[in-house]
Structure formats: structure tokens, C-alpha cells
């Protein structure tokens, strides 16, 4: 696991004054699980945990009609299936924009319904 530094270094100005900033070392952004299969029914909500990074995230899905997502700035992200299909949940760190984590989501349903009398 890598760490990332948020902040800037201090420096001494020509007049003898010193300025400094604080640094915060953070772990790499991660998401768990990275792959999720869900059955399409109303109570089928699942949680996706986000950790590492700065702690401020934005999250999007490639195909918003497939799942409904409820997320704030913190973990977990609640994912509820809407229709069958495949989409990707992408989480990006707002302070470290190169830090991106993804979860592939597959929403499935019954393959066949047989009614017998």
C-alpha cells in the first residue's frame, strides 16, 4: 500500500521570515468490494465501503438507470438495484484527483419464469 502526501513544504523567505504548512500522509484510495453481483428486488440494497485517501469523495455510476446510489461524503455507499444490467461505480478523491477506485456491478434477475397448473 502506498501513501500520499497532502500539503506543501515550508520555506524561508529572504527577509528571514519562515512560512510552513502541515502535511498529512494518507493511504491510497480503495473500495470494497471491487465487484458486486446483485439480484434485482426492492430489499436488495448492498453497501460499498470506501477507505483511504483524503476522506472527501465524489461517486458516480456509468449507467444510473441500473442502480440507485445513496452516498454522501463518507462511506459506505448504499447501492440498490433498479433494472437488470451492468454498470461501474466510480469513486474519486476530491483532494487527490488522480486517486480513483471502481466497483463493477452486475444486476441480475430471474432467467425464466415457469407457471405450472
Please give a handful of descriptors for the protein shown.
117 residues, mainly beta, single chain
Give your account of this protein's structure.
- There is one protein chain.
- With 117 residues, this protein is mainly β.
- 0% of the residues lie in helices and 50% in strands.
- It has strands at 3-6, 11-12, 18-19, 24-27, 30-32, 35-39, 46-51, 57-61, 67-70, 77-81, 85-93, 100-108.
- The protein is rod-shaped.
- The mean pLDDT is 83.
Strand content: over 45%
Portion of residues in helices?
A: under 10%
Unreliable stretches (pLDDT < 50, length at least 5) are none
Order of helices and strands: EEEEEEEEEEEE
Radius of gyration: 21 Å
Q: How many β-strand runs?
A: 12
Categorize the overall geometry: rod-shaped
Distance between the termini: 59 Å
Q: Kindly report the spatial arrangement of strands forming the biggest sheet.
A: 5-7-10-9
Largest sheet: 4 strands, antiparallel
**Number of separate helices:** 0
Global structural class: mainly beta
Could you tell me the mean pLDDT? 83
Topology:
Layout: E1 3-6, E2 11-12, E3 18-19, E4 24-27, E5 30-32, E6 35-39, E7 46-51, E8 57-61, E9 67-70, E10 77-81, E11 85-93, E12 100-108
Parallel strand pairs: 6-12
Antiparallel strand pairs: 1-4, 2-3, 5-7, 7-10, 8-11, 9-10, 11-12
